[in-house]
Amino acid sequence: MATAQGAQLERKKFFADPIMLTMIGVLLVFLALFILYPLLMVLLDSFYSEGAVSLGVFKRILSLSRFRTAFTNTLVLGFITGIFSTAIGLLFAYVEVYVKLKRKVLSTLFKLVSMLPIVSPPFVLSLSMIMLFGRSGIITRSLLHIYDSDVYGLKGIAIVQIMTFFPVCYLMLRGLLKNIDPSLEEAARDMGASRFKVFTSVTLPLMLPGLGNAFLVTFIESVADFANPMLIGGSYDTLATTIYLQVTGAYDATGAAAMSVVLLSLTVVLFLIQKYYLESKTAATLSGKASRQRMLIEDKSVRYPLSVICGFASAFVLLMYIMVPFGAMFTLWGRNYHLTFKWFSYLFRTSGLKAFRDSFMLSLIAAPITAFLSMVISYLVVKKNFKAKGFIEFVSMLAMAVPGTVLGIGYIRGFANGLFRTGVMSGLYGTGLILIIVFIVRSLPTGTRSGISALRQIDKSIEESAYDMGAGSGRVFMTVTLPLIRDSFFSGLVTAFVRSITAISAIILLVTPNYLLITCQINEQAEKGSYGIACAYATVLIVITYGAVLIMNTLIKYLGASRPVKYK
């Protein structure tokens, strides 16, 4: 009886809070309008033909050998990238958590390299691969005198994607390894098991759900990737690039919609397995923190080989990134390696300044909105109970599984000639506002996951005491909850900014001549073979993103909530 009365009182307080109800209403409208509606229009385009429900469009695209080849290529690429990214990520995580590195510079180098691909544009490594190992590459042509080197195709995309996505696996697996209780492994060692036997019989089984989770996340990222296959894919078509070319080359929006449904079905199924099965398995297997500090491995037979492998991988990644600014300063890549600033000068004399201004302003507007919405969604999911909570959490996270090209086609179909041919929404397509909305939608899942993790660590009694003193939910959120999770808020803010300013797959179909974006300019210049200009754009973009990360770290350092309290 007391429980029922408490639930009834809680429900009455909930419906008596206008700010909370307003925020839920705004979120429901936003998520339905800008995530579900575009996807629904893509589905309608593929199933509804000539006034009736039909599978004719699917039959037509399935008969295209180009589509079947692209589908097979996408799966092959996804498996290769997923397996090798997970393996390299596990290696880096194991070395950091288990191995005692004698030189601190090695540990710093490994952490730097693992962070580089996360905060840089998604196709920087593709540019470097072409300039280092292509027909005019500095290594293949100038050093090895190989004139017929072909870096395009599966091998090129796979190497670039592995180098781009393995840091994601590293960050996921590092946390899992830290949570394994050392006593389990030491008990096996005390019984005479070798380190390899301990790893295969104790550590690896505990990590299997986490490894599966990392593999699926990387697989989803790989099959949804557009920029790298577009630049270095050559004749190796993937679903993402085929969908783009179906719209821009074949002018077949209906066929592109059907292809999008196939790609979307693949990513959503993998997303559901990853989120609702493997994540729960990982949490159940590795619950809590390690009981005591782990004794790090000092055995040279283990330390040296692992350090050398990680060192080679780190050197390769650093070489790829170093080549980008050099590519912007060489007079003519493959022919004349004298240093010059003419490409930077050309960039700012032409449309470069507008591209940087447009990208910076649109991303700067999108970032705080994304960070705030992420924290609000996290707050509602963790701290409140209402019927639409599951819907809000699922749809906000669903954007993670939607490939950018699919979302772009959905926005074209939904806001250019869908239900909103007239009215306020009719003028949305082709404006900066639609680009800001896409940026928000694409970054929302990352910020929401970070916010949920932070909020679950806050004791409910802290907020309940504020409610008992008469504060409303809006005041409690702004004055109690948000200050406690400000680190996550700043992190989400900068992550949203970096993801927005480096985005390409979702916005390449939505950009009009009114707005020039840096990533689209890089893609355009690289496709024309103007690698000097493309590298100049990429270099300035990397400086902007790293500047944003440094500012975030400074803000967290001086404004963070984790300062120790001093008592007199």
Write structural notes for this entry.
Mean pLDDT is 81; it is low at 561-568. A hairpin with a 3-residue loop joins strand 3 (330-332) and strand 4. The chain has 24 helices and 4 strands. The chain starts with a helix and ends in a 9-residue tail after the last helix. The strands form 2 sheets. The protein has a two-stranded antiparallel ribbon. A two-stranded antiparallel sheet has the order 3-4. By secondary structure, it is an all-alpha fold.
For this entry, give a set of tags.
two-stranded antiparallel sheet, MetI-like fold, globular, two-stranded antiparallel ribbon, 4 strands, 568 residues, 2% strand, disordered C terminus, mainly alpha
